[in-house]
Amino acid sequence: MASLQPVRGTHDLLPEAMRAHRRVIETAREVAERYGFDEMATPIFEFTDVFRRTLGDTSDIVTKEMYTFTDKGGDELTLRPENTAGVARCFISEGLAQDVPLKVFCGGPMFRHERPQKGRLRQFHQIDIEIIGVPGPQADVEVIAAGAAILKALGIGDLTALQLNTLGDAESRGKFRDVLVAYFNDHLNDLSEDSRDRLERNPLRILDSKDEGDRKIVAGAPDYADHLNQESADFFAGVTGGLDALDIAYTLDPKLVRGLDYYTHTAFEFTTTELGAQDAVMAGGRYDGLIGTMGGPETPGVGWAAGVERLVMLCGDPPPARRPVALIPIGEAAEAVALELSEALRAAGNRIDLGYGGNLNRRMKRANKIAAAAAVLIGEDELQRDVATVRDMETGEQEEVALAALEDHLARYR
RNA sequence: GUGGUAGUAGCUCAGUUGGUUAGAGCACCAGAUUGUGGAUCUGGGGGUCGGGGGUUCAAUUCCCCUCUACCACCCCA
Question: Which of A54, A131, A211, A243 is the most exposed place for a label (fewest CB within 10 A)?
């Protein structure tokens, strides 16, 4: 292996992989647009505080996964580990409160210093959508429906399943947290080491523990449904009612918890069994407190993010590249003609591969290798009669076409 | 971050119980075919056996460290 390696957890996107990648993003963007989401983008890095203050001081992302650095001007900056905080910052600094409800679609690279695995990279790509400024559950339903529609459009609706839960509003969440902490404190000695740590940082996470001993304790833990206040219960009923009306199937999962602090009410994940431990393919929820805690006007929000690499792995082979037409001049005079001709044909919308050197045999081989739909041969005799020999690479049939008619003739290969 | 499995040609792999020039298939290049691709045949290039150190007369093979990928945990998209 060469000593020159890509940085751990980063990938090159070679043309074939890039096509698969773009298909996912473009399909998602096109579907999201039908749901009324406009694409926008925020910078790839922000002041570190944007993430530190919003994701929660105890989250793994903030405590050990951020790519943080001091730039030459002395500013503390961080490569974004997720997109929502940046959108919220943009909402505040661009004064978008008057554009509410705001519906946006974003896509781009994210960075987390995690230990890489399949489906888990240090530079990875997400697409996400957000609705900001709608307090009611209709927005949650619309966001989930758009996500389901995207998965369906990608042909992987059957490979994913929607898990749904509610975290309640701030009041419910706080109360339930207290109840949970009290319960788990009674079983402190039987909890796993990880979960004792979680008890300090994010007690709700214990509900999701994979440790067998923990699971026994969790089985007897208080049920969140009993601790939701009326408003939270009504809100959740609005979400499930909307999904039912749209025939969007879901599984209620009381153990589904979000890792990031800013979530309230609805939490959901589209999961798959195809990717091992990295089973979440699209995940999100409501974040009513986020913009307020960042210092903006109290504004509700809901959205999700999906991992492009994970979606790509579910999607299978990418679409083939557009087949070019190989333009093959033979002889110096023909070279000069072909150079100008290639420009004209490209301007007309053709994908033209103008070969570089080599004899005819060699160039035909190249035409075959690049999967050319047709080869256009221009030699001395063709040149004298102002024609080209057009060979259909699929059938092997050839015909002479006047140079003036070439553009029309090649239209079939576009 | 913790534990585990693995790294031999561009790719998929074989092999070496430590011993001369490390192999195959596919891919690539050239020729057979100096104006015609795919098939076939012939020939060719390409490897510091992931990297570093140690043991040894001798290491791709044994030992240690390290890097990377993968699996589980953790976390999450």
Answer: A211
